[in-house]
Amino acid sequence: MSERLRVLQRQPRRVSITLSYHVHEALLSRSEEEGRSVSNLCAFLLEEALLRESRSPEPARPFQPAGNGFVADGRALQRRDSRP
User: Fold this and answer.
1) Are 39 and 30 in contact (CB under 8 A)?
2) Are 26 and 80 in contact (CB under 8 A)?
3) Which terminus of the chain, N or C, has fewer Cβ atoms within 10 Å?
4) What is the 8-class DSSP label of residue 71?
5) Given this model, what pLDDT does residue 23 score?
6) 25 Cβ partners below 8 Å, 6+ apart?
7) Backbone angles phi, psi at 76, to 5 degrees
8) Angstrom distance (rounded) from CA 80 to CA 33
9) Domain count, the chain
């Protein structure tokens, strides 16, 4: 495999997802708090979740709707903003 092909394979990839209104609002709020883009925050959160999962001895649980627009994997997700 050529060096050029190896470099191209390491390039970041784009993904499109559909989020509920509440999840999007929570991401917007947190991204503003942290001074980063929503895209950067999502990439960070996904990487952290995957790292945590790979270090965790317990088996990964499938994602389930939490009923409030958030998605939970067995643990409750809470909004980070303090708006009413």
Assistant:
1) no
2) yes
3) C
4) E
5) 96
6) 79, 81
7) -70, 135
8) 9
9) 1
Percent of the chain surpassing pLDDT 90:
44
For residues 30 and 24, give the distance between their C-alpha atoms in angstroms, rounded to a whole number.
10
Q: How many residues does the chain have?
A: 84
Question: Within a domain: residue 42?
Answer: yes
Tokens of 56: 């965790």
* Residue 7 to residue 66: CA distance in whole angstroms: 40
Work out the widest C-alpha separation in the chain, in whole angstroms. 56
Determine the structural domain holding residue 48 and report its residue range: 15-72
Is 26 within a domain?
yes
Tens-digit pLDDT profile for residues 24-60: 999 999 999 999 999 999 999 999 999 998 887 766 5
Residue 54 domain flag: yes
Structure tokens belonging to residue 22: 């509440």
